[in-house]
Amino acid sequence: MRSKLVAANWKMNFTANEARAMLAALRAELDPESSTLAKDREVLIAPPAVLIPAVSQALAGSSLLLGAQNMHFEDKGAFTGEISAPMLKPFGVTHVILGHSERRHIFGETDEAINKKVLAALRHRLVPILCVGETLMQHDAGNALEVVVKQLENGLDGVSSEDIERVVVAYEPVWAIGTGKNATPEQAGTIHGAVREIIEQRWGREAAVKARIIYGGSVTPENVDSLVSRPDIDGALVGGASLRADSFARIVRARVG
Ligand code: 13P
What is 4-252's CATH number, 1.10.150.530, 3.20.20.70, 3.40.50.720, 1.10.3980.10? Predict the structure, then answer.
């Protein structure tokens, strides 16, 4: 059985002091339950890059994992403002979110650049969380699946059959991000099923069974249970509701029914 991955994408929120206060509150909620939760749940915090050292310290001794929100595909060089995998790893970073829709749409990231980042993450033994998802216009035009398949195939181009098992795909419909309008469990379940089929076609049955495909877009304590109860939804990537310890803790405790 695949364990559920519940990831907090803090986006551009919190100072170091605010992050420490948030994590103290979150740990007070989750640490006592960690042995029960550990059975089928992984919890990840992805803070802004500059907070990674502070968050790394604040997470010491907890079972919470540390992720980055982005990284460059090169290890070093003349890339002003960028950070690389070898810079992240010493802080205990294990995961990196790549190709988030805000990176694609606000900062112009292409499938090609995202693919290079996925391959770089795998090379450095980081788990890439590849984000895919259609815009409202694409959704309304009935092109969701086509868009997701293209982003997936381009983003995972060249990933080996050994490495595919370490990749997490996050389906985040752009129209659901920060809007309060989540995809229904049925809508998300259909896309997740299709993503799993593509993985099976390209990398085989075993890879498809092991691959984790999580959902993001207005996940809340109210809707998380029904989303993660779908067999193809292996967790959640949470923005707004991850900024409060009580709501994120409730999402982590999602009931799978
Ligand atoms: P919201 O949960 O705020 O809709 O954000 C989702 C997201 O973009 C997570 O990466």
Answer: 3.20.20.70
> How confident is the model over 25-66, as pLDDT tens digits?
999 999 999 888 878 899 999 999 999 999 999 999 999 999
CA distance 230 to 242: 21
Q: How far is the centre of ligand 1, averaged over its atoms, from the C-alpha of 178 (Å)?
A: 6
pTM above 0.85, yes or no: yes
Q: In the block, which residue shows the tokens 């310290």?
A: 57
> What is the residue with the minimal CA distance to atom 7 of ligand 1?
239
Pocket of ligand 1 (CB under 6 A): 9, 100, 172, 177-178, 216-219, 237-241
Per-residue pLDDT tens over the stretch 57-87:
999 999 999 999 999 999 999 999 999 999 9
Of 245, 254, 193, nearest to 219 by C-alpha is 254
For residue 33, give the amino acid letter: E
CA–CA distance, 131 with 114 (Å, rounded to integer): 10
